[in-house]
Amino acid sequence: AQSVTQLDSQVPVFEEAPVELRCNYSSSVSVYLFWYVQYPNQGLQLLLKYLSGSTLVKGINGFEAEFNKSQTSFHLRKPSVHISDTAEYFCAVSEGGSQGNLIFGKGTKLSVKP
Amino acid sequence: GAGVSQSPRYKVAKRGQDVALRCDPISGHVSLFWYQQALGQGPEFLTYFQNEAQLDKSGLPSDRFFAERPEGSVSTLKIQRTQQEDSAVYLCASSLGPAIAKNIQYFGAGTRLSVL
Question: Chain B within 8 Å of A41 (Cβ-Cβ)?
Answer without folding.
Answer: yes
